[in-house]
Amino acid sequence: MDFLYYFFCIFWIINLLPSINPYQVAVCSASDFPNPINVTKHFSFPDFSFTNNPRLVHDVKLLGSAKFSNEKGTLQIPNESQDTDIRHQAVQQFHYKSN
Q: Signal sequence: where (predicted)?
C-alpha cells in the first residue's frame, strides 16, 4: 500500500513539474523602502536529529547555505554568518524550490 501511494505521488509530481511556469523575481534594495519586511517560515520534521538522519543535512543543503545546530536541533536558512547578500540567497532558494 505504501509503495503504491508513494509511486502515485511521485508520478503526479513528475507530471506536474512541466506545468509550473518560471517566476520572475524582482529584488529591491532595502534602502528603497523605509521599513523592510521580515518573513519567517516554520517547518516541521518528525525527526530533526542530524545524527540519526544524515540524509536530512544533504537534502537541506540543496536549498542553499544552511547553518545547523545539533545542540538546539535548529536550522537557519540562509546562513547569516556568510558574507553574501541575503537577497541573492533568497532568490536562489526560491529558484530551487520552483524547479
A: 1-22
